């Protein structure tokens, strides 16, 4: 497997300098300590933003150089530091966090002790049997008043019980964004400390609180939810599947009912194992200010409980009338169709006209009339919808005909992937809808569909694994609009060279002048198909995904390489190629690589 992209690896120079640069990004550059030392030692005092994401090979010695640079007041203007994916160890944290400059406004990092550190904790002097987690040095830094300008803090990983020291020391007067992600070790004392800080009004500027996968159990929710500040605009509680036990969600509902979150604009409770009864404890109290609501991956949400009036869908349906500012609604994998059909149909009928994004993916078990109800809603009240996700919704055969003719002209993104047997009638209807023409079926007038108003704003189209054959492909490719920026038709191996030639002709004629992303993974591309496509790729293309097409020979890959070198009609904008090049010898692979531009070659990595 090969992944090639511009600008990834920076080897560094023994005397590298960065002049007066203010923003430096070394994300995923494979920096080890040797390279990192040179980079850190050469940082200028003008640097305001430093991003080192994904450089997990830097060890304690490397971070000590950066810490030393900070200690000597070498980075007094640094405002943003991103260390996500760097796997900061305990010793590394001690070498770095105490010396962070007071100018820091945004800090992002994940905390994972190395195996050696975990094995040797008990023998380390001054630690004993109590593991000194990585949050402690940062908590001390804030406690000493060294973080007076901190506005955004993101911690991912095992902060553990010492989150207590961190929560106690948070600079409440300035903090606007707080994120703890995948930290399942935070105990009751830490949550209580955060709650007290909020209750005292010390977090009055907090606007975004993200507590994803933090093992927030009901007893902690009882302490935390009532203290959430009224300033909060974004609340993400995703992947906390223990909140519901002993009525944890009820405390959130009460707080909202008492108008404790009057400014809340975004709420996500994705993948929380919500039951219909639990959802009913807070959905009826959603504030009218809400603009984004994500209830995805709660498969029991649509089920009918012991009391038919207490289903989650019924509660949401009733509250939609108040949510007049709702712009995004995500109901992926909530079991639409697993419960009674009527509440779902009524839900669609009450979708607010303010809606811009509607995600109904992974709801396969829908009953008769469900998608017809959505079609009616699209036609009557969703004239401003820009993104519609119907991925894996069981739209096999002609079921999509209930929806496609009614797609609003405002639509920019349409995802129909994993509806594995879309009928030819459905694809033809989509083709006609994109072009704004009338589709008449001469053989079966009952399947004739009248459509109007072309999808002139369509920019992103995803039809992966839709069972496309040549007939469907010709309909689809022939109708692609000039506005299209991203096309994904991966997982459609049934298209022959004739079908791909239709797409090639479209690109060759310059009919897709803005196409930036093309995904053809797992499409059974062979030499003949690949040559047709490679010679026609538009110069606007930035990313092309060709993985899982192992029948393309090295000589045909060279056709792509030649396009990259072509001065007149070359792929000058291309930044990333995902592909498989057969042949295990370096010589065969090198023939292809040698034809790539130097920047693209520098990104080459074999997996």
TrEMBL record:
Keyword check for Cytoplasm: no
PANTHER family given in the database record: RAN GTPASE-ACTIVATING PROTEIN 1 (PTHR24113:SF12)
GO CC, one annotated term: nucleus
Superkingdom field: Eukaryota
Originating species: Chromera velia CCMP2878
Protein name: Uncharacterized protein
Biased composition regions of type Basic and acidic residues, renumbered to the chain: 434-447
UniProt entry keywords in alphabetical sequence: GTPase activation, Leucine-rich repeat, Repeat
Swiss-Prot/TrEMBL GO biological process terms: nucleocytoplasmic transport
């Amino acid at each position: 497997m090969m992944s090639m992209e511009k600008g990834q690896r920076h080897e560094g120079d023994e005397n590298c300098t960065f002049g007066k640069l203010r923003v430096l990004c070394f994300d995923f550059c494979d920096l080890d300590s040797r390279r990192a030392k040179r980079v850190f030692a050469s940082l200028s005092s003008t640097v305001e933003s430093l991003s080192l994401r994904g450089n997990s090979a830097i060890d304690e010695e490397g971070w000590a150089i950066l810490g030393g640079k900070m200690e000597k007041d070498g980075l007094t203007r640094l405002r943003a530091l991103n260390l996500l994916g760097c796997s900061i160890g305990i010793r590394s944290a001690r070498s770095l966090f105490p010396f962070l400059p007071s100018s820091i406004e945004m800090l992002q990092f994940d905390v994972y002790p190395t195996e050696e550190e975990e094995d040797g904790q008990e023998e380390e002097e001054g630690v004993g049997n109590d593991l000194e987690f990585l949050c402690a040095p940062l908590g001390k830094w804030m406690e000493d008043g060294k973080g007076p300008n901190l506005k955004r803090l993101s911690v991912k990983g095992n902060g553990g019980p010492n989150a207590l020291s961190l929560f106690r020391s948070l600079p409440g007067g300035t903090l606007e964004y707080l994120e703890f992600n995948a930290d399942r070790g935070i105990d009751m004392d830490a949550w209580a400390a955060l709650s007290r800080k909020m209750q005292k009004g010390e977090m009055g500027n907090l606007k975004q609180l993200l507590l994803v996968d933090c093992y927030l159990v009901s007893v902690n929710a009882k302490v935390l939810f009532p203290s959430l500040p009224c300033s909060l605009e974004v609340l993400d509680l995703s992947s906390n599947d223990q909140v519901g036990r002993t009525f944890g969600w009820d405390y959130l509902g009460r707080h909202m009912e008492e108008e404790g979150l009057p400014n809340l604009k975004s709420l996500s409770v994705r993948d929380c194992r919500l039951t219909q009864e639990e959802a009913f404890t807070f959905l009826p109290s959603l504030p009218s200010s809400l603009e984004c609501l994500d209830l995805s991956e709660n498969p029991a949400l649509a089920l009918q409980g012991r009391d038919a009036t207490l289903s989650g869908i019924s509660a949401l349906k009733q509250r939609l009338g108040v949510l007049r500012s709702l712009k995004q609604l995500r109901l992926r994998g909530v079991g639409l169709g697993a419960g009674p059909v009527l509440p779902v149909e009524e839900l669609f009928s009450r979708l607010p006209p303010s809606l811009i994004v509607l995600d109904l993916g992974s709801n396969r078990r829908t009953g008769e009339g469900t998608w017809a109800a959505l079609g009616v809603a699209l036609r009557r009240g969703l004239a401003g919808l820009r993104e519609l996700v119907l991925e894996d919704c069981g739209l096999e055969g002609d079921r999509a005909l209930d929806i496609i003719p009614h797609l609003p002209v405002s639509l920019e993104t349409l995802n129909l992937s994993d509806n594995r047997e879309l009928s030819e009638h459905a694809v033809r209807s989509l083709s006609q809808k994109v072009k704004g023409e009338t589709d008449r079926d001469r053989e079966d007038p009952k399947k004739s569909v009248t459509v109007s108003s072309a999808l002139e704003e369509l920019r992103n189209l995803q039809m992966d694994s839709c069972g496309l054959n040549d007939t469907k492909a010709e309909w689809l490719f022939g109708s692609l609009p000039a506005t299209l920026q991203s096309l994904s038709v991966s997982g459609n191996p049934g298209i022959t060279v004739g079908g791909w030639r239709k797409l090639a002709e479209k690109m060759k004629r310059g009919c897709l002048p803005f196409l930036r992303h093309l995904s053809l993974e797992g499409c059974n591309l062979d030499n003949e198909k690949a040559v047709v496509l490679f010679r026609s790729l538009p110069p606007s293309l930035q990313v092309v995904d060709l993985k899982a097409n192992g029948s393309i020979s090295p000589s045909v890959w060279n056709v792509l390489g030649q396009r990259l070198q072509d001065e007149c009609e070359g792929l000058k904008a291309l930044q990333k190629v995902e592909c498989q090049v057969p042949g295990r010898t370096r010589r065969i692979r090198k023939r292809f690589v040698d034809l790539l531009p130097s920047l693209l070659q520098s990104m080459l990595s074999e997996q």
